[in-house]
Each structure stands twice: as C-alpha cells, then as structure tokens.
Backbone:
C-alpha cells in the first residue's frame, strides 16, 4: 500500500465519520436532548432569581 492509497482510505474514513456525526446531530431522536441542553442556561438563571427573591430583605 503506497502513500496515495493510504490518503484515499483516510479521506474516505474521515468523510464517513463526518457524515455520521452530522446525521447524529440532526436526527429527530436527539432533538429533545439537545433542546434540554440548550435551555440549561436559562433554568440556572431562574434558580438564581428565585434564590435572590427569597433570600434578600431590604
């Protein structure tokens, strides 16, 4: 196996890996999990607001 054949096989493996990751990321089975992960920042913010409201007295 020469260097050109190795490069071709490596390119093919990387392309298949890339296509697999794209299909995984955009699959409908993962949508709920990704939506929950995207909203984690806002749920943490809500906890901060609730703790400030209940803990602060002026």
Residues:
């Amino acid at each position: 196996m020469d260097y050109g054949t190795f490069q071709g096989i490596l390119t093919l493996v990387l392309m298949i890996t890339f296509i697999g990751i794209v299909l995984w990321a955009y699959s409908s089975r993962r949508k709920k999990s990704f939506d929950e992960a995207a909203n984690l920042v806002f749920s943490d913010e809500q906890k901060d607001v609730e703790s400030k409201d209940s803990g602060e007295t002026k």
